[in-house]
Amino acid sequence: MARKASQPPGIWEANVAAPAREIYQQGLSPRCWALSIFLGTTLGMFPLPGSTSVLCVLAIGGCKTYSVEISAALVMLINLVLGPVDILTWPLFMRWGCGLASDPCYDALDPTALRAALGEGFGSLLAAYGRAIVLGIAAWGATTAALFCVLLLALPLLSGGKSATAKKAR
Predict the structure, then answer these.
(1) What is the DSSP letter of 82?
(2) Rounded distance, CA 127 to CA 152, Å?
(3) I need a labelling partner for 101 at 20 to 30 A (CA). Which of 10, 14, 19, 152 fits?
């Protein structure tokens, strides 16, 4: 069903689709796309829900301080979209990290025991599952390093090695 011109844009259009179109039209270099996608994806999926926006803002500030070309809007847009994915992948990273370390720490993640640990407080949760959380963060680190390498190699190949602004100038 088509939206009338007088109707305000929907949540998806206003918060995701319109900013994505604006970012695409900026003419970013492939390296800028790769780094922005890398930062948005990796920090947006950091296995500690609630910390991702702060991490993205700190990374954007660091990149701007050292004159590294990134799109702050793209980083934050990817972070926003990946919020639900972050929560769903957190147990997967923990399981993978414990499996790589041959540690049975994740096997103890029984939903009933988890609820009990949450009920006793944050300190109890960290005492019971701290090792699984640390190994999950290590698995996340390995995944993000691989993602960055793939993006750095793939994006220049897909764009022919030229930025969108250079293609428009021809």
Answers:
(1) T
(2) 39
(3) 152
Following DSSP, what letter does each residue of 132-145 receive, concatenated?
Answer: HHHHHHHHHHHHHH
- Tens digits of residue pLDDT in 35-90: 888 888 888 888 776 788 899 999 999 988 888 888 888 899 888 888 888 878 87
**Average pLDDT score, the chain:** 78
State the burial class of residue 35 (Cβ atoms within 10 Å of its Cβ: 0-12, 13-18, 19+): buried
In this prediction the pTM is: 0.64
Domain ranges of the chain: 13-19+28-162
- Residues 73 and 100 sit within 8 Å (Cβ to Cβ): no
pLDDT at 59: 92
Distances (CA, A) of 83 to 40, 46, 63, 88, 90: 11, 10, 22, 9, 11
**Residues near 75 by beta carbon (within 8 Å), at least 6 away in sequence:** 36, 39, 40, 43, 56, 59, 60
Token pair, residue 19, equals 């900013």
